[in-house]
Amino acid sequence: MVQENEFMELNHKLTQLLKGRTILSESGDEGHVAITFDDQSTLKLNVAGQAAVSVGAKVKAVHETGEQFQVDLEEGSSVRVRLENPGSSVALRDKSGAVQYLG
Amino acid sequence: MFIRAIALLLFLYAVALGQQPAPILPDPKLTPGDAFEVTVQDLCVPGYTKKVRNVPAEMKREVYEAYGVTAHGPGDYEVDHLIPLELGGSNSSKNLWPESHRTSPWNAQVKDRLEGKLHALVCAGRLDLKTAQQAIASNWIEAYKFYVNPNPPVSEIASPAAAETPLNADQVWVNTKSGKYWKPGSRYYGKTKQGQYMSQEEAIQKGHQPANGTGE
After folding, report:
1. Three-state DSSP class for residue A13
2. Using an 8 Å Cβ cutoff, are A21 and A35 in contact?
3. Collapsing DSSP states into helix, strand and coil, what is residue B151?
4. According to the model, what pLDDT value does residue B170 have?
5. Nearest Cα to B136, choosing from B199, B66, B89, B67?
6. B133 touches chain A (CB under 8 A)
7. Does the predicted TM-score (pTM) go above 0.80?
8. Which position among B13, B22, B50, B102 has the lowest Cβ density within 10 Å, counted as fewest Cβ atoms?
9. Ramachandran category for residue B88: left, alpha or beta (phi over 0 → left; psi -120 to 50 → alpha)
10. Which of B52, B80, B133 is the best mutation test for A, with the most CBs of A within 10 A?
11. Average pLDDT over residues B194-198
């Protein structure tokens, strides 16, 4: 299980990029999650297991420690996943497909 | 006499345990190499490597521990990306290893030259990205001999003092704290507290900018 975010490190770089973006949609299959935001950027995660994503919510912060990855939403909930390969499982690209973040 | 001899052996054993040999090649079981799902177009954009998260301190500690490096001095090692960021390497523990600055002739400075060369070849369309990744991940010394120079590097750059000498006269000095680079002959060339020499092309590829707009 993923721990609460007070035990997780703030991912400054990704928080700066994602803060304020609204989740438009979520897709994926076993091992993969793709979250599309209102600016048409897409966050792709390689995960162990599945994730429940709140469409319409706005990102507040991102926390990450080891295999634990958590997107905190302004509404109070969060998206929690276990990364399949920490350090190589998170990619954010803008609407044109250009890399914005890798980690 | 016998007790003294035993004590001496125990002392030597303890010393040997305390002095970890500097790993020259990564352990393929611990560090086989790992890369992001990126294209050549992604990599060859100036500033690409700044978009990758910094390796967390905890992960660095785990890498040293995995390699049995229990103690080291400042500047002895760096936690290196076996497949470098500029070739799409990831921050996975599968791609990290403690690379020595002190060993000679093969050390971190020499591997940096290989990384710059491979990046230039890939971005020029003269080398396939996967081939470059596999070459440096399987045996970076052999890759150096193949892509840079068949002979071992002659420059003794294993000491900090030697590392502060540019390999070529036309290399710029990058202040790695500010991200600005200085050209030869300029005021702060080789003089900032943190920095390293590299080609101007490599500095630009890594997203560094000329100091004062010109680097002079």
Report:
1. helix
2. no
3. coil
4. 74
5. B89
6. no
7. no
8. B13
9. left
10. B52
11. 76
